[in-house]
Amino acid sequence: AFEKNPDNPCFLCAKMRRGVLYKKVEELGCNKLALGHHFDDVIETTMINMFYAGTIKTMIPKVSSSSGKLSVIRPMVYIKEENIINFTKRNGIKPMSCGCPVEDKKTDSKRAELKKLLEQLEETNPNIKQSIFNSMKNINLDYVLGYTRGNKKKTK
């Protein structure tokens, strides 16, 4: 996948942050790690995978680690980014900046590119984000050219 490219700074940063989080969860003796991915992250990840990795895949609300000792949960996947931004503004919560050049818009990212594309598409179809989100819950395997389940690949 595009995001799994080791040359992509976002991939490296995410991998390092996850490593630190997993280590802390283990130190604390916890079995769940809650991440802050939201509705828009799910849509953007879906599109990144389709456009740049040639796969239909997204983030899901709960996934087990490869060891099975830890569950990663995303309790905010049904909350839109604009609602989170509005909530933080109303409640005087200031977002933290990590100093990332991608976050600070000093360099482009595929995610930012797709955000712009989605804004353009919303002008003619205000429900486009919901449609993309829903599409990941309504996959009819009878009408796809092939799919992978676990390590098994099926093609038609």
Q: How does this structure look, described?
A:
The chain has a single domain (2-155), classed as HUPs (Rossmann fold, 3-Layer(aba) Sandwich). α2 (39-53) packs across α4 (110-124). A hairpin with a 6-residue loop joins β2 and β3 (71-73). The chain is globular, with a radius of gyration of 17 Å. By secondary structure, the protein is of the alpha+beta class. It has helices spanning 9-28, 39-53, 81-90, 110-124, 128-135, and strands at residues 32-34, 62-64, 71-73, 146-149, 152-155.
Write the layout of secondary structure elements.
Elements: H1 9-28, E1 32-34, H2 39-53, E2 62-64, E3 71-73, H3 81-90, H4 110-124, H5 128-135, E4 146-149, E5 152-155
Parallel strand pairs: 1-3
Antiparallel strand pairs: 2-3, 4-5
Pfam families: ATP_bind_3 (PF01171)
Domain tRNA(Ile)-lysidine/2-thiocytidine synthase N-terminal: 16-95
Keywords: Coiled coil
What is the gist of this entry?
With 156 residues, the protein is of the alpha+beta class.
Based on the model shown, name its key terms.
globular; two-stranded antiparallel sheet; alpha+beta; 5 strands; 156 residues; Rossmann fold; three-stranded mixed β-sheet
CATH homologous superfamily, by name? HUPs
Shape: globular
Q: How many separate structural domains?
A: 1
Low-confidence stretches: none
Q: Tally the helices: what do you get?
A: 5
Main sheet record: 3 strands, mixed
Termini Cα gap: 23 Å
InterPro entries: Rossmann-like_a/b/a_fold, TilS/TtcA_N
Keywords: Coiled coil
Protein name: tRNA 2-thiocytidine biosynthesis protein TtcA
Pfam family, one: ATP_bind_3
